[in-house]
Structure formats: structure tokens, C-alpha cells
Design a protein that fits this description.
The chain is an alpha+beta fold. 36% of the residues lie in helices and 25% in strands. A five-stranded mixed beta sheet has the order 1-2-3-4-5, sandwiched between helices. It is globular and about 45 Å long. The N and C termini lie far apart (41 Å).
Length: 151
Amino acid sequence: MDEITIRRATADDVTAIVALLADDTLGASRETPDDPAPYLAAFAALDADPAQTLLVAERDGGVIGTAQLTYIPGLSRRGATRAQIEAVRIGEAARGTGLGSRLIEWCVARSREHGCTLVQLTSDVTRLDAHRFYEKLGFEATHIGFKLTLR
């Protein structure tokens, strides 16, 4: 794999991140890349929150992957802090190169450094390839998730 940099995203990366989010079956129906305003507002909130890290993987100046890492303090598990990984996307040209593994490993390493006792993530029930990918990285399907759409 060519030289890859994993770094915190900037506002200049938002358009490329949204393109990654929209570039799959599920994202194509729920993302609107032609309207950057809600994404820029969301980025500002993420960037201002120390519990959030929006990442990009970059090669030759182009964004080829992204993930969001969130730290969640809680009372359960003896006051444990857990990490949540969300919105993992790899650009089509970089799929199968090991970049997804590198992004997840980066998130797990930062979670350890932050003192988290657990790393969790969700994956849409239809993403069977993603489920196998996460299991290969040591994640276990231990819970059933529920969502309530508010808008």
C-alpha cells in the first residue's frame, strides 16, 4: 500500500468525507452531497467536542477513508469509558488494501490510550461483508441494536 496518513479531519475534508458516505447502497439514499450546509454544521460540532474524533485516511493529498471515534463515559462497568466507532468508509479504489484494518487498529489504539475498557461499533444488518471484516479484527456480535428515527 502506498504511503497513507491517518489524521484528524479538517473542514476542508468534509466534501470528500460526504462523498465517501454517499458512495454505497445505504448512503446513496440518505446523504445529500450537493448540500454541504448540514455537514459543515455537524463537522463544527464534532470538531468542538473533545470526545469526538473524525478521521481521514489520506494518500497523495486525497481522502480515501474515514471513521468517527467517540469516547462515552458511563457508570456501568465500574465507571468505564467506552469507545464507539462509527461511519467507517473506504473509497472504492482503496478497498481490499488493508486500509480498513489500519483505521480500526488506529481507533482501538487511541481508545486504549484514552483509558477505554471497551470498543464497540454498529454495522447495518445488511452489511454481511462488514460483519465478517469486524469479526476478523476480533469484534464479537454480542448485542442486538435498536434505532428510532426521529426525522
